[in-house]
Amino acid sequence: xxxxxxxxxxxxxxxxxxxxxxxxxxxxxxxxxxxxxxxxxxxxxxxxxxxxxxxxxxxxxxxxxxxxxxxxxxxxxxxxxxxxxxxxxxxxxxxxxxxxxxxxxxxxxxxxxxx
Length: 115
Fold this sequence. Notes:
Radius of gyration: 13 Å
Shape: globular
Strand content: over 45%
Strand order of the largest sheet: 2-10-9-4-5-6
Largest sheet: 6 strands, mixed
Helix content: under 10%
Number of helices: 0
């Protein structure tokens, strides 16, 4: 079925920015509601942000005003622009489709916020 490959993570200082990318396989990407999740060591995976096929967005309270999710349907790609990063944002970040199109979890991309 559909595969999602995350990239763009790395080490950044507090207050810095990163832009994550999620590349999707398949030919029905435009119908998916897409989401970013993250998982810190020893903690459960948590939802971060969602973007609908029409471009509508929703965010977890912990990232609202700092993160922005977007999509480029022509490239089968979802992005997560992360600004004003905090140490508590440190986690492995995953993307996936929501609802009936949910697929297996990929490897994710590591984001580390530290001085």
